[in-house]
Specification:
Mean pLDDT: 85
Strand order of the largest sheet: 2-1-4
Order of helices and strands: HHHHHHEEEEEHHHHH
Number of helices: 11
Shape: globular
Number of strands: 5
Largest sheet: 3 strands, antiparallel
Helix content: 55-70%
Structural class: mainly alpha
Length: about 375
Amino acid sequence: MKSMSGNSLFLAFILLLIAILPLGLAVKSSRPMFRRLGLILTCSAFILQLSYFILRWSAVKHAPVSNMYEFMTFFGIMLTASFLIIYFLYKQIVVGLFVIPIVLIILGYGSVFTNEVTPLVPSLQSNWLTIHVITVAFSSAILSISFATGIIYLLRTLDVHKRSITSVALEVVMFCLIVVIGFSGVTAVFNVMAEDIHIQYKNAQGVQVKTVYTMIPLIVNEGAVTESGETIGIVKITKTIDAKQLNSIVWSFIVGTILYSAIRLLFRKPIIVILQPLTKRVQPALMDEISYRAVVIGFPLFALGGLLFAMIWAQIAWGRYWGWDPKEVWALITFLFYTAFLHLRLSKGWEGEKTAWLAIIGFAIIIFNQVFVNLVIVGLHSYA
């Protein structure tokens, strides 16, 4: 059953990849056949994603949201669902053209983590885990729609051919997305072609720790040596940070920069200039409205899942509602940011370009919380 779930997810990935072509043609053409084909492929992929989730749940005997592979995969599923909901409300196929690549990036990112089934640690053996994580994933996916529509709005309204602070900032956003693709690519290459490197060191508590690097160690923790006692790594960092995961992030930026440079050399223009023609038929005011509505829906759901349900689970698992764990702190930062977002929108009249940039910053905070905090900063959520 676990194998069947993996096959369902892989086939869904392929269908979403194929769907980009008719979705792209749909925004350039008035012929309905491209729109229908793109939606059929997307809906079929979503059904396969749900099949993966149900089959894996049956195989592992608990909700498959307990590690990075399962969470990022479920996040991708919810983002697909969020697009379909937004489409049937607003009939804007262009949203899918920008959301589906993000889904593919998220699924590709999740696939680099192990999909092996392991017993849940005691703190994860709670129904509140399921409620908490599913609500956070769904709310984060809805909030991520505002990121996509914010990008569309800026591409439609900015003069991307003119070098300015806003156009450079938008190009930096594109570069960051390429870096995530670079992470998936470099991880796959090292997994296939390189031998694992076993490293050991004493952690902050003085306990001997052994870890396995799949990528060439550029960054290691202080005191790290190979099994034979040889020093290794170029940069040595504090033991409070997971050097192995930070090493992966550094490799991602190296490969992402190479990939981004290759795209620039191939097309001889910035990525935002390449994408801008896809937004010519877009109504900016409608994209702004969708961004705002996505936050209105996603914000209260995040407040429930990321704070209220999380605190209930924390009390059951660790005997306290709040402990200033890095994950908890960044969940609070996310909540406060979107509180400010809605305040500025409703009280100060921040619309259009300001809303678009706030949506992009909000998405960056969500990704930082779900990726960097989980992987690099040592805390109670490090196992996730």
